[in-house]
Design brief:
The complex is a heterodimer of chains A (about 475) and B (about 170).
Chain A (H helix, E strand, L loop, with lengths): L5 E10 L5 E5 L8 E5 L2 H9 L3 E10 L5 E7 L4 H15 L7 E11 L2 E10 H13 L4 E6 H11 L8 E6 L3 E8 L2 E9 L5 H17 L10 E6 L1 H14 L9 E3 L6 E3 L5 E3 L6 H14 L11 H76 L4 H12 L4 E11 L2 E10 L2 H10 L10 E10 L2 E13 H10 L1
Parallel strand pairs in A: 1-4, 3-14, 4-8, 9-12, 12-13
Antiparallel strand pairs in A: 1-2, 2-3, 5-7, 6-7, 9-10, 10-11, 14-15, 16-17, 17-19, 18-19
Helix pairs in contact in A: 4-7, 5-6
Chain B lengths: L1 H47 L1 H15 L5 H16 L4 E13 L3 E13 H13 L4 E10 L5 E13 L4
Antiparallel strand pairs in B: 1-2, 2-4, 3-4
The chains are: A alpha/beta (about 475), B alpha+beta (about 170).
């Protein structure tokens, strides 16, 4: 297969005991996963340096033998709460200062309001020693988990499980991992070192361990649990046959399955990949399970990454975000500035166009405005010609004999004109009848009596009144038209 | 908190140094453009009515023509008014020339006249003003009866429009 460049967000790496390295990664959404086998860490370093592999985040699995596993029952409703409580439980579990170890926890089982939690404790010095070879090739992991969890995850995603409880067997010529799960949670894990090459003896040891672990299963699970076997083909078949014969009386023989091994490509010296599924490596299943576990953030509280690295990573992420925000802000600012500058340029251009249209006609139209305003002014001056004479004439014509006018005030305004008058009448009724008397008048038909006051005089009384009339422009124009 | 403060300060500085000048320039440019658009519309409108205005103006030009200074025009206005009431049997009690109002293209002269006399003579004065060829106008008047029969006190505010001298 032609060598390809692989760029991925998450990859898992697992260093085998014989120096081989397995790297699993999701290089393409269409491909489920790619596992690549490297002869040595040097070869992996070479691939990384040559940019054949570009990984953002690495995940590694620590062996079961490096960790101290403890089971703790906590009064917590969920794992978030349990993880917080665990901090206070740790001093009673390990006789070490808190800065000398790291821990992670996963759920074992739930008992009403209590959670049974499996705590994985790892000495910091052991972890540093474990990570040394990875760091030597430039791998700084973002996720460190117990390998048993990775194996559990790999079996779960293999797609052959039909029961929530199962015993898994992962085997090759060097060793075997036998693990029991109830309701998908790891209950027991043991690693066996096998007699190299003796398939029958090794298989017998494995079957014995399986039977031991199934003995510890709750009674309710004994009729439903499954046994899943994966690994080197000859070992897997031998274990299955042996287990089938021994387990017949336990009625589990029909629930024993062999899980297909993960696909693996071998990275050759010339940078090409060669596919060979017969060369199964125990660590491949761990790396494959680890990748899924890390990429899908399963078992969030099981991360054994020391807090200092977490904080360093968080700081780096924060810095990256600040940088991204700053760059984005600058780009946004430049865009806003450019938009405004372009808008201003466009307005200026439009203004210049208008100005160029104005210049040639400005001189021609220059005198029109002054003439127009003078015409308007003269029209206004001459607008009420004859109206005052007409108003006086109407006063003479329509004012009854019982009324005499003593004062008359006329004011021309924007809306027309207003007329105020004071007068005397023989009686109140004569005063108020004045409005009826002028009803036929063209200008004064709207006269209103504002105030009328009867005053006693020798030999009778007189009524003094005030009247008001608004003459609108339309009245004035109508009057002129009628004229 | 410190980060937020720094962000706010940086944003404010950037706004003041980079954005605000552009916005200010935009406001000025827009204002100028609107003024020019208005001017262009007005000029176009003026051009459309130019012939009509020219024709009307040629008719009223003799009425509004006034090449003299303010004092000269006031003197002419006063003469015109005295010419109107001198032939009538009224007594002028006061004539006040009010300050000239300067419009953009013409001047407005105003005078306040107070008189008393027979009501018929006062009305004759009104008729004389209204019949005058000159663009004079009675803006306000106030008639008040006197104790003598048919005699009234009258006050008038009279205005006249005169063109500004061409420079």
């Amino acid at each position: 297969m032609k060598a390809k460049r692989i760029k991925t967000q998450w990859a898992s790496v697992n260093l085998a005991g014989d120096g081989n390295v397995i790297v699993c990664m999701k290089s393409n959404p269409d491909i489920h996963r790619d596992c690549i086998h490297f002869d040595s860490l040097e070869r992996l370093k070479q691939a990384i340096d040559n940019k054949r592999i570009s990984v953002k985040k690495w995940a590694v699995a620590v062996p079961r033998s490096s960790c101290i596993l403890k089971s703790v029952i906590l009064p917590a409703s969920d794992m978030d709460e349990a993880a917080k409580m665990m901090e206070f439980e740790l001093p009673s579990l390990v006789p070490l200062p808190p800065d000398e170890f790291v821990y992670g926890c996963t759920l074992l089982n739930r008992q009403e309001n209590m959670l049974n939690v499996l705590v994985c404790i790892l000495k910091l010095s052991v972890l540093e020693e474990f990570l040394k070879p990875y760091r030597a090739v430039g791998i700084q992991p973002h996720r460190i988990v117990l390998e048993s969890l990775a194996i559990n995850n790999w079996f779960e995603m293999s797609g052959v499980i039909s029961s929530e409880s199962f015993v898994s067997v992962l085997v090759n010529k060097l060793g075997s991992a036998v693990q029991t799960y109830i309701d998908g949670n790891l209950q027991k894990a043991s690693n066996l070192i096998l007699a190299n090459g003796d398939i029958t003896a090794s298989s017998s040891d494995i079957v014995e361990e399986v039977l031991n672990q199934q003995e510890e299963l709750p009674v309710s699970q004994k009729d439903t649990y499954e046994v899943l076997i994966a690994g080197a083909e000859e070992y897997a078949l031998e274990v299955k046959n042996l287990l089938s014969s021994k387990a017949r009386e336990l009625s589990v023989s029909d629930r024993i399955s062999i899980v297909p091994n993960p696909r693996i490509d071998f990275y050759e010296q010339d940078g090409k990949y060669v596919h060979d599924n017969n060369r199964f490596c125990f660590e491949t299943a761990i790396a494959a399970g680890l990748l899924e576990l890390a990429a899908n953030s399963r078992y969030p509280h099981s991360n054994l990454l020391p807090q200092q690295y977490v904080r360093k990573h968080e700081r780096r992420v924060l810095l990256g975000r600040y940088l991204y925000t700053a760059v984005f802000s600058i780009v946004l600012l430049v865009l806003v500035w450019l938009c405004l500058a372009a808008s201003n340029w466009r307005i200026e251009k439009l203004s210049n166009v208008i100005e160029s249209q104005i210049v040639p006609i400005e001189q021609v139209a220059g005198g029109v405005d002054s003439k127009r305003q003078r015409v308007v002014a003269i029209r206004r001056q001459l607008s009420n010609r004859g109206q005052i004479a007409q108003i006086i004439s109407e006063l003479y014509e329509y004012t009854p004999g019982a009324i005499s006018i003593s004062e008359l005030k006329y004011v021309a305004n924007q809306s027309g004109a207003s007329v105020e008058m004071k007068g005397q009448a023989d009686s109140l009724s004569a005063a108020f009848d004045y409005t009826d008397a002028v009803r036929e008048a063209k200008f004064l038909h709207g006269i209103q009596i504002e105030n009328a006051q009867q005053t006693p005089r020798p030999g009778g009384s007189i009524v003094i009144f005030k009247a008001y009339c608004d003459i609108s422009n339309s009245d004035l124009n109508n009057g002129q038209d009628k004229e | 908190m410190a980060v937020i403060t720094v962000c706010v300060v940086v944003c404010a500085v950037i706004y003041i140094v980079i954005i605000e000048p552009q916005l200010k320039k935009r406001r000025t440019s827009l204002e100028r453009m609107h003024q020019l658009q208005l001017k262009l519309t007005k000029i176009k409108g003026d051009l459309l009515i130019k012939d009509c205005i020219d024709s009307v103006y040629s008719q009223i030009e003799p009425l509004i023509a006034g090449e003299g200074t303010d004092q000269q025009e006031k003197s002419r206005f006063t003469r015109e008014l005295s010419g109107l009431y001198s032939k009538l049997n009224v007594t002028i009690t006061s004539t006040t020339i009010l300050p000239t109002v300067d419009e953009q293209f013409y001047r407005r002269l105003s005078a306040k006249i107070e008189m008393h006399g027979h009501v018929k003579e006062v009305f004759n004065f009104v008729l004389a003003v209204e019949a005058n060829r000159s663009p004079i106008k009675i803006e306000q008047f106030h008639f008040k009866a006197r104790e003598i029969v048919d005699n009234i006190n009258a006050s008038f505010l009279i205005t006249k429009v005169v063109a500004k001298p061409q420079t």
